[in-house]
Amino acid sequence: MLPVDPARTAVLVMDYQQDVVTHFVPVEDEMLQRAARVLERTRAAGIPVIYVVTHFRPTHPEIVPDRGLFRSLRAANQLVEGTPGAAVHSAVAPVPGDVVVTKKRVGAFSGSDLEYILRAFGRTHLVLFGVATSGVVLSTVRAAADLDYDMQIIADCCADRDEEVHRVLIGKIFKSMAPAVSADEFVAALDRLDTASPGE
Predict the structure, then answer these.
(1) What is the pTM of this model?
(2) Which of 75, 79, 127, 84 is nearest to 103 (CA)?
(3) Domain ranges within the chain, ordered by starting residue
Protein backbone atom coordinates (compact mmCIF):
# COMPACT_ATOMS: atom_id res chain seq x y z
CA MET A 1 0.00 0.00 0.00
CA LEU A 2 1.43 3.38 -1.01
CA PRO A 3 1.43 5.86 1.85
CA VAL A 4 -1.84 7.77 1.64
CA ASP A 5 -1.32 11.50 1.36
CA PRO A 6 -4.74 13.10 1.88
CA ALA A 7 -3.57 16.21 0.03
CA ARG A 8 -2.95 14.39 -3.24
CA THR A 9 -5.28 11.36 -3.13
CA ALA A 10 -8.75 10.95 -4.61
CA VAL A 11 -10.98 7.88 -4.50
CA LEU A 12 -12.86 7.02 -7.70
CA VAL A 13 -16.09 4.98 -7.52
CA MET A 14 -16.94 3.87 -11.05
CA ASP A 15 -20.21 2.62 -12.58
CA TYR A 16 -21.72 1.46 -9.28
CA GLN A 17 -25.10 2.13 -10.85
CA GLN A 18 -28.27 0.17 -10.30
CA ASP A 19 -28.51 -1.23 -13.85
CA VAL A 20 -24.84 -2.25 -13.79
CA VAL A 21 -24.55 -3.93 -10.38
CA THR A 22 -27.91 -5.72 -10.56
CA HIS A 23 -28.06 -6.74 -14.24
CA PHE A 24 -24.77 -6.40 -16.11
CA VAL A 25 -22.43 -7.66 -13.36
CA PRO A 26 -24.50 -8.76 -10.34
CA VAL A 27 -22.69 -7.67 -7.19
CA GLU A 28 -23.06 -9.33 -3.80
CA ASP A 29 -24.15 -7.37 -0.74
CA GLU A 30 -20.78 -8.03 0.91
CA MET A 31 -18.99 -6.12 -1.83
CA LEU A 32 -21.40 -3.20 -1.54
CA GLN A 33 -20.80 -3.14 2.21
CA ARG A 34 -17.02 -3.11 1.72
CA ALA A 35 -17.31 -0.26 -0.74
CA ALA A 36 -19.58 1.69 1.61
CA ARG A 37 -17.03 1.29 4.43
CA VAL A 38 -14.21 2.50 2.18
CA LEU A 39 -16.21 5.57 1.20
CA GLU A 40 -17.23 6.41 4.75
CA ARG A 41 -13.64 6.22 5.96
CA THR A 42 -12.36 8.16 2.93
CA ARG A 43 -14.72 11.05 3.66
CA ALA A 44 -13.74 11.04 7.32
CA ALA A 45 -10.10 11.42 6.25
CA GLY A 46 -10.97 14.48 4.17
CA ILE A 47 -10.14 12.77 0.87
CA PRO A 48 -12.38 13.60 -2.11
CA VAL A 49 -14.78 10.92 -3.29
CA ILE A 50 -15.46 11.15 -7.02
CA TYR A 51 -18.24 9.11 -8.58
CA VAL A 52 -17.93 8.26 -12.26
CA VAL A 53 -21.25 7.33 -13.85
CA THR A 54 -22.48 6.53 -17.35
CA HIS A 55 -25.50 8.63 -18.33
CA PHE A 56 -27.29 9.11 -21.62
CA ARG A 57 -30.07 11.45 -22.70
CA PRO A 58 -33.54 10.06 -23.42
CA THR A 59 -33.54 8.18 -26.76
CA HIS A 60 -29.74 7.76 -26.45
CA PRO A 61 -28.70 10.23 -29.16
CA GLU A 62 -25.06 9.66 -28.16
CA ILE A 63 -25.18 6.02 -29.34
CA VAL A 64 -25.13 4.80 -32.94
CA PRO A 65 -28.14 2.46 -33.11
CA ASP A 66 -26.79 -0.32 -35.30
CA ARG A 67 -23.17 -0.81 -34.26
CA GLY A 68 -20.71 -0.36 -31.44
CA LEU A 69 -20.37 -1.54 -27.89
CA PHE A 70 -23.21 0.57 -26.52
CA ARG A 71 -25.99 -0.31 -28.96
CA SER A 72 -27.42 -2.87 -26.51
CA LEU A 73 -27.88 -0.14 -23.89
CA ARG A 74 -29.84 1.89 -26.39
CA ALA A 75 -31.97 -1.10 -27.33
CA ALA A 76 -32.71 -1.84 -23.66
CA ASN A 77 -33.22 1.85 -22.82
CA GLN A 78 -30.72 1.64 -19.98
CA LEU A 79 -28.61 4.20 -18.11
CA VAL A 80 -30.83 7.13 -19.04
CA GLU A 81 -30.04 10.08 -16.79
CA GLY A 82 -32.71 10.56 -14.14
CA THR A 83 -34.04 7.00 -14.25
CA PRO A 84 -33.78 4.59 -11.29
CA GLY A 85 -31.51 2.24 -13.21
CA ALA A 86 -28.96 4.97 -13.88
CA ALA A 87 -28.78 5.99 -10.22
CA VAL A 88 -25.85 5.00 -8.02
CA HIS A 89 -26.82 2.03 -5.85
CA SER A 90 -28.32 3.23 -2.57
CA ALA A 91 -25.73 1.32 -0.50
CA VAL A 92 -22.94 3.53 -1.86
CA ALA A 93 -24.84 6.65 -2.89
CA PRO A 94 -23.12 10.05 -3.04
CA VAL A 95 -23.48 12.43 -0.11
CA PRO A 96 -23.20 16.23 -0.13
CA GLY A 97 -19.61 17.20 -0.90
CA ASP A 98 -18.93 14.26 -3.21
CA VAL A 99 -18.33 14.95 -6.90
CA VAL A 100 -20.22 13.14 -9.66
CA VAL A 101 -18.61 12.96 -13.10
CA THR A 102 -20.62 11.83 -16.12
CA LYS A 103 -19.07 9.88 -18.98
CA LYS A 104 -20.46 8.63 -22.29
CA ARG A 105 -18.21 5.66 -22.96
CA VAL A 106 -16.33 2.98 -21.01
CA GLY A 107 -13.36 4.77 -19.47
CA ALA A 108 -13.69 7.39 -16.75
CA PHE A 109 -11.76 9.96 -18.80
CA SER A 110 -13.75 9.33 -22.01
CA GLY A 111 -16.10 12.21 -22.72
CA SER A 112 -15.94 13.48 -19.13
CA ASP A 113 -14.37 16.37 -17.25
CA LEU A 114 -12.59 14.08 -14.76
CA GLU A 115 -9.13 15.35 -15.67
CA TYR A 116 -10.20 18.94 -14.99
CA ILE A 117 -11.63 17.96 -11.59
CA LEU A 118 -8.50 16.08 -10.56
CA ARG A 119 -6.27 18.92 -11.71
CA ALA A 120 -8.32 21.51 -9.82
CA PHE A 121 -8.14 19.38 -6.67
CA GLY A 122 -4.41 18.83 -7.11
CA ARG A 123 -4.83 15.05 -7.03
CA THR A 124 -2.09 12.82 -8.45
CA HIS A 125 -2.78 9.55 -6.58
CA LEU A 126 -5.93 7.66 -7.56
CA VAL A 127 -7.41 4.88 -5.48
CA LEU A 128 -10.12 3.36 -7.64
CA PHE A 129 -12.67 0.61 -7.89
CA GLY A 130 -15.62 -0.16 -10.11
CA VAL A 131 -17.71 -2.53 -12.17
CA ALA A 132 -16.66 -4.11 -14.41
CA THR A 133 -12.98 -4.92 -13.99
CA SER A 134 -12.62 -5.55 -17.74
CA GLY A 135 -14.63 -2.43 -18.56
CA VAL A 136 -14.39 0.86 -16.72
CA VAL A 137 -11.53 -0.25 -14.47
CA LEU A 138 -9.33 -1.46 -17.33
CA SER A 139 -10.02 1.56 -19.54
CA THR A 140 -9.47 4.02 -16.70
CA VAL A 141 -6.25 2.45 -15.48
CA ARG A 142 -4.72 2.51 -18.96
CA ALA A 143 -5.73 6.13 -19.54
CA ALA A 144 -4.58 7.26 -16.09
CA ALA A 145 -1.24 5.51 -16.52
CA ASP A 146 -0.67 7.49 -19.72
CA LEU A 147 -1.44 10.64 -17.71
CA ASP A 148 1.20 9.73 -15.09
CA TYR A 149 -1.10 9.18 -12.13
CA ASP A 150 -0.03 7.00 -9.21
CA MET A 151 -2.75 4.42 -8.72
CA GLN A 152 -4.01 1.56 -6.65
CA ILE A 153 -7.04 -0.65 -7.17
CA ILE A 154 -9.24 -1.85 -4.33
CA ALA A 155 -9.53 -5.33 -5.77
CA ASP A 156 -12.31 -6.70 -3.59
CA CYS A 157 -14.54 -3.76 -4.54
CA CYS A 158 -14.26 -4.67 -8.24
CA ALA A 159 -16.17 -7.39 -10.09
CA ASP A 160 -16.49 -8.84 -13.55
CA ARG A 161 -18.78 -11.31 -15.29
CA ASP A 162 -15.75 -13.54 -15.85
CA GLU A 163 -13.91 -14.27 -12.60
CA GLU A 164 -10.81 -15.48 -14.46
CA VAL A 165 -10.61 -12.23 -16.43
CA HIS A 166 -10.91 -10.31 -13.15
CA ARG A 167 -8.13 -12.41 -11.59
CA VAL A 168 -5.72 -11.96 -14.51
CA LEU A 169 -6.32 -8.23 -14.77
CA ILE A 170 -5.88 -7.60 -11.06
CA GLY A 171 -3.00 -10.01 -10.57
CA LYS A 172 -1.02 -9.49 -13.77
CA ILE A 173 -2.13 -6.75 -16.17
CA PHE A 174 -2.67 -3.97 -13.63
CA LYS A 175 0.23 -4.91 -11.38
CA SER A 176 2.80 -2.45 -12.73
CA MET A 177 0.34 0.42 -13.17
CA ALA A 178 -2.07 0.05 -10.27
CA PRO A 179 -1.14 -2.51 -7.63
CA ALA A 180 -4.05 -4.16 -5.87
CA VAL A 181 -5.01 -3.61 -2.24
CA SER A 182 -7.99 -4.84 -0.29
CA ALA A 183 -10.66 -2.68 1.27
CA ASP A 184 -9.30 -3.61 4.70
CA GLU A 185 -5.77 -2.59 3.72
CA PHE A 186 -6.91 0.78 2.44
CA VAL A 187 -9.03 1.46 5.52
CA ALA A 188 -6.08 0.48 7.72
CA ALA A 189 -3.87 2.93 5.81
CA LEU A 190 -6.41 5.67 6.50
CA ASP A 191 -6.58 4.68 10.16
CA ARG A 192 -2.83 5.12 10.40
CA LEU A 193 -3.27 8.75 9.38
CA ASP A 194 -5.15 9.31 12.63
CA THR A 195 -2.36 7.87 14.73
CA ALA A 196 0.61 9.40 12.90
CA SER A 197 2.63 11.97 14.77
CA PRO A 198 2.73 15.53 13.38
CA GLY A 199 5.32 15.76 10.64
CA GLU A 200 5.23 12.05 9.82
Answers:
(1) 0.94
(2) 79
(3) 9-193
